[in-house]
Amino acid sequence: MTVETLSLYANVLVYSAMAVYVVAFITFALDLARVVAPVERAVTTASVARMRVLAGSVPIAVADRPSSGEVSQSPSSRANAAPPRSRFSRVALALTALAWVLHVAATALRGVAAHRVPWANMFEFTLTSSAVIVAIFLVVQLWQRLEFLGVFILGFTTLALGIATTNFYVDIVPLQVSLQSGWLIVHVFVAASGTAFLAIGAALSLAQLLQTRHETLGKGPKFLTRLPSSEQLETLAYRVIIVGFVFWTFTLMAGAIWAERAWGRYWGWDTKEVWTFIIWTTFAGYIHARATRGWRGSRSAWLALVGFTAVIFNFTIVNIFFKGWHAYSGL
What we know:
This protein is an all-alpha fold. The chain is built from 11 helices and no strands. The model is unreliable at 37-48 and 57-81 (pLDDT under 50).
């Protein structure tokens, strides 16, 4: 097949993935909007208590003590206290997995057509990084029940793909000389992985802010009653962001090594380099402040959101409107 034919098939797969993502997004939204039955609400209370135990926020003895109105359970049933996923949730996760397969196929086909890794410009990086975000979201479900993040993750992914196909799309062209390096594989893929973990951390932080408002003021959507507590959400966000921070640290270091190989210097105060360092500093401050200064609650959540906003700014505004050595957007 010709390059044009393969690119066409890749684009068809991208649009197909977007269509399935939209249906999955709607299904996740329906799952959040559904009314919880009294028995299910009681079991959910028990499952949230056990999630707090996993995060180390409350003693096991307290979490295992049945509250008033909680359904009495045998020891064997308490070991599996989490309620089964609703029909909407199961369908939404299945649709997400299907859309992700189409998404990955589109990304891989773009790479086959270009005879290189598919993340050499803004369009391709958006394809790859959004696929990594969805992959991590699906894998995380094996660790924690976080399907309530589906609305945020799929909404963000669909929006990113929509913007990429309409505003960032470029035809396949040969790589620039400075990009013809093995560091393109390592540096950019690690950056995409770091972005994915930071995006999930931002989603958890946003949920934490909503839950905090609900807990303090009694205001907010009904679905918040089925989410973990704000403390649990904060702990989960902290753990995910630490992983993202490790990836971002490696991104910064690998970028400096690649810069020395390509341009003969490790650091040149290029706009892209500066903003990558600003992001690293923001999340380093988040981790340090929360660990040593007691920055808990809403302050840590807002700092996490500020950090992820800087990630988006770095990828969009800096790439499009600022000139520099990292002018690889292809636009």
